[in-house]
Write the structure tokens for this entry.
Amino acid sequence: MKWKNQITDLEAYKPGKTIDEVKKRFGLDSIVKLASNENPFGYSPKVDALLEQFDGSYTLYPDGYATYLREEVAAFLNVDEKQLIFTNGTDELIQIISRALLEEGKNTVMATPTFSQYRHNAVVDGAEVREIPLNNGDHDLEAMLAAIDEHTAVVWVCSPNNPTGTYIPKEPLEAFLNKVPKDVLVVLDEAYAEYVVASDYYDSTALIRQYSNLIVTRTFSKIYGLASFRVGYGIANEAIIQALEPVRPPFNTNVLGQFVAKEAIKDQAFIKECREKNREGLKQFYAFCEKNGLHYYPSQTNFILIDFQCDSDEVFEYVMSRGYIIRSGKALGFPTSVRITVGTHDQNIGVIVAMEDFLQNKARS
Ligand SMILES: Cc1ncc(COP(=O)(O)O)c(C=O)c1O
């Protein structure tokens, strides 16, 4: 077969362990998954009622333009409907952007560690990947600017960043955007934007009006609690959307995903409540870290990266044996840290007790 050279050594995405796998392996009845930054509070209660009423057809293709969802999101964000593109999760939008702009002879600039799919897609598309190490958890925007040259097509900015949970304040982000050449697309991944409480965070829709080379990506998978429906979207000026649309597969968002996302975005009271409960949950983890002298990055997301100063797989395995699936930092570029999704109050207590026990066992051994 004539596979592309660059994919022969590429590893497939490794998702976190499934609940059933862990149940079987440890003979446990109940497992709490705090590995993929889903919403522990689920989704708007209005969605269940809605699904019962769904009277659309599963036989016909879905609306390829996501018309009703588009109307709702455009009204919510106060942007034109033509400024939006809907995708099968943000993952697909990243793929579409990469496919539309990256190829051999071009390069792309991103932080490291950051969300893995920017690099992954760029490699598949044959572009050179320029990874700029984070500076104490933050994007090193100056170094990222310095890495841009005439062959750079895309710059990825993840704010808040996965896996650190750190964000870029408005001022440095604007200073950065002012300096990026206008023919380089800046992708601002805001998968966790709805969790942010920092007062110096930016308004990304305002930035889109200011910067013609910016696309913002958002998702219904995180705070909206609808990860399995696979709905993400991009916001940009019309010209960028028009350029990307031909690369989008025709029926990429499914009928139920469009249906529930359209309603979920209307329930902002639920989103606010989740954001507030998440802040309370983060405080539980901060207290645990401070009590035990463990380094963590203050988070603007629904996860926290904690450094245990030992092989992260040890922490991961121990906590899993106690019924909590978290994410080992090894695959995330932080080999001595674990990333934990903030759960409900009780889930947080449970995983913290397991981590306390891990530390005690380690101290004894
Ligand atoms: C920063 C970031 N971007 C994008 C995604 C992809 O989200 P989805 O494809 O579910 O919209 C994730 C998921 O973990 C993420 O953390």
In short: The chain has a mean pLDDT of 96. The pocket of pyridoxal-5'-phosphate is lined by residues 37, 89-91, 115, 158, 162, 189, 191, 219, 221, 227, 232 (CB under 6 Å). Residues 268-292 form the longest helix (25 residues). The CA atoms of residues 84 and 235 lie 5 Å apart.
